Amino acid sequence: MPDILMRQIGCSNCLTMSRHPVEVIQRILELQDLKNATHFNYACPKCGYVSRQQIPRSEVHRFSADEWQLFPDDMRVYCVILQCSKPGCHFHVVVLAPFENDADLSDVTSRVGNWMADDAACATGSRPMRPFGIRIAKPWPFR
Ligand SMILES: [Zn+2]
Ligand SMILES: [Zn+2]
User: Fold this and answer.
1) How does pLDDT run across 68-86, given as a tens digit for each residue?
2) Which of 43, 46, 98, 105 has its CA at 20 to 30 Å from residue 17's CA atom?
3) How far away, in angstroms, is 87 Cα from ligand 2 center?
4) Residue 57 pLDDT
5) Which residues have C-beta under 5 Å from ligand 1, the single-atom ion?
6) What pLDDT is recorded for position 21?
7) Which of 127 and 1 is assigned the larger pLDDT?
8) Distance of CA 63 from the midpoint of ligand 2 (Å)
9) How far, in Å, from the CA of 83 to the mean position of ligand 2?
10) Burial class (CB in 10 A: 0-12, 13-18, 19+), 80
11) pLDDT in the model for residue 68
């Protein structure tokens, strides 16, 4: 069994941490469609604060497949794509967002409605439209 590489993300508001496989963050960056990205948008499952996170580069947590079982996660990560507020912008605001495993689409929609978007932005730096317009909300693997 290969090791599982994880990155740890902390909420800049309440400091709650969550862990995500490296491939999840890579996929979010691809969807964000920004070359040489340094940040991505992350929604904290605890306080609902959406902030720009620096892409963690150095801190990779390595777990064996067995150890990974010791870190049960009651969350499932979603990619939520919000409408951009800038007229004519063809980028959307791509957000990495963990939700409870049993959350259905209506739970996700109401949680997103309560998000506080701090400095979340699209690839050109524009803010999401208010109230939030969800274009896509898909659980991993985001297909
Ligand atoms: Zn938080
Ligand atoms: Zn935009």
Assistant:
1) 665 556 888 999 999 999 9
2) 105
3) 8
4) 67
5) 11, 13-14, 16, 44, 46-47, 49
6) 82
7) 127
8) 37
9) 8
10) buried
11) 64
